[in-house]
Design goal:
The chain has helices at residues 18-26, 38-58, 71-85, 110-118, 136-146, 168-178, 197-200, 249-263, 268-274, 276-284, 313-322, 342-346, 351-354, 368-396, and strands at residues 6-7, 65-68, 101-105, 122-126, 150-154, 182-185, 204-208, 219-223, 288-290, 303-308, 325-326, 333-334, 337-338, 357-361. With 403 residues, the chain is of the alpha/beta class. The chain has 2 domains: 18-263, Aspartate Aminotransferase, domain 2, CATH 3.40.640.10; 267-396, Aspartate Aminotransferase, domain 1. The strands form 4 sheets. The chain has a 7-stranded mixed beta sheet, sandwiched between helices. The chain has a 3-stranded antiparallel beta sheet with strand order 9-10-14. Strands 1-11 form a two-stranded parallel ribbon. Strand 5, helix 6 and strand 6 (182-185) form a beta-alpha-beta unit. 49% of the residues are buried. It binds pyridoxal-5'-phosphate. The site of pyridoxal-5'-phosphate has 14 residues, from helix 3.
Length: 403
């Protein structure tokens, strides 16, 4: 990132916080935390101190905090591990029980959707409304019909593309009645709003360090002490036997240094206030509207997904990048080709609409002038992207260059 870049893509990854960098470097001891010699024991102490801080910040017990190699890995262990455990009767033996259903919202991150598919179970997607919020009636109806055959529910706390807050508490309540464990991908929630694992009554939850300004490649899977989870990858049996591999003591220390302060959402109001000029532009500009639900309490702080009529999201990302502003489309690429957002498609948008979005997300180092610079650059970028889209569609329709 050059000094002139204005960074507006925190939902993809936040810049490293000084506290995380300092803690990471201070924890730079040579020992493997599983080794019995003194350096190993020091590394173990670093890991356990980090685990305690992380547990405190997330409202969990230290023994419930498993360190992973990131949010994707935590989601995979949760979804596949819960599924495997739930194919047995829960007494610790190998008596099989048929629980083929995996209930996930249609707007989950691919880390959940792909791992749900990889279970080999029967994946049922919870539909969302035009606001991107999961349909509770569908969950209730599914559990009434198939509660006894449902292995797990995975519902994110807040969506990474639109910021829409999901009805996690209500789903936990419904699932409790049916005896179904709930995993929550809280990657876009933690740091923006309070998260209390035990109070919420979750079976498992995912957190990712680099979204909070901690190091990349570090994550947490919080797993309740009574939650059954079978390993997905075998190895040395670290982290309660479900996440084998050397524990990253430095990474854990880096995450612990930021998860505490950011778990208190003191910056949420600040982030929303900074977005006021963008909200005003969207209200006034004929080509702009929000895909983010804007009712009070409907979205996480600091994130806006903009629908830009008649333009492609990736063209806007490119044009804004030329102007020194880093935003994203929010949706994934496959083999380098931008795909229409599965989240916006699930919200009932057309493929064209689902390709015409950009996501702006703020975080710990954002300042008001970042947003004013975006607001100044956006109208010209929109015009240029709309012109490019007109040329592209005319070419595609065969209007140009034909003999
Ligand atoms: N879940 C959500 C909602 C995310 O936004 C992301 C990252 O984009 C992930 C999971 C994956 O986390 P990580 O990048 O740590 O693998």
């Amino acid at each position: 990132m050059s000094a002139s870049d204005i960074y507006l893509d925190y939902a993809a990854g936040a810049p490293l916080r000084a506290a995380a960098r300092d803690a990471y470097l201070a924890a730079d001891v040579p020992g493997n935390p599983s080794a019995v010699h003194r350096p190993g024991r020091r590394a173990r102490e670093t890991v356990e101190a980090a685990r305690e801080r992380i547990a405190l910040a997330l409202g969990a017990q230290p023994a419930e905090v498993l360190l992973t190699g990131g949010g994707t890995e935590a989601d995979g262990i949760a979804v596949q591990g819960l599924y495997r455990a739930r194919q047995f009767d829960g007494t610790g033996g190998d008596d099989a029980v048929a629980r083929p259903f995996v209930l996930v919202s249609a707007v989950e991150h691919h880390a959940v959707l792909e791992n749900a598919r990889l279970t080999g179970g029967q994946v049922v997607q919870i539909p969302v409304g035009p606001d991107g919020v999961a349909d509770l009636d569908f969950v209730a109806a599914h559990l009434a019909a198939h509660g006894g055959q449902t292995a797990l529910i995975s519902l994110m706390a807040a969506n990474n593309e639109t910021g829409a807050i999901q009805p996690v508490h209500q789903v936990i309540e419904l699932a409790r009645g049916a005896g179904v464990p709930v995993h929550c991908d809280a990657v876009q929630w933690v740091g923006k709003a309070p998260f209390r694992f035990a109070e919420w009554g979750l079976a498992a939850a995912t957190v990712s360090s680099h979204k909070l300004g901690g190091p990349v490649g570090v994550g947490v899977l919080v797993v309740g002490r009574r939650t059954g989870l079978r390993p997905v990858i075998g190895g040395g049996g670290q982290e309660r036997g479900v996440r084998s591999g050397t524990v990253d003591a430095r990474g854990a220390a880096g995450l612990a240094a930021v998860v505490g302060p950011v778990a208190v959402p003191d910056g949420a109001g600040r982030l929303e206030a900074m977005l006021a000029p963008l909200d005003a532009l969207v209200a006034a500009h004929p080509s702009l509207s929000y895909n983010t639900p804007m009712a009070d309490g409907a979205h996480v702080a600091g994130l806006r997904n903009l629908a830009v009529a008649g333009a492609r999201g990736e063209a806007l990302v490119y044009l804004l990048d030329q102007a020194g502003l880093a935003v994203s489309t929010g949706s994934a690429c496959t083999a380098g080709l931008p795909q229409p957002s599965h989240v916006l498609l699930a919200m009932g948008q057309t493929e064209e609409q689902a390709r015409s979005a950009i996501r702006v997300s703020l975080g710990h180092a954002s300042v008001p002038s970042d947003v004013t610079a975006l607001v100044e650059a956006l109208p010209a970028a929109i015009e240029a992207a709309q012109r490019a889209e007109t040329v592209r569609t005319e070419r595609a329709a065969g209007g140009w260059g034909q003999p």
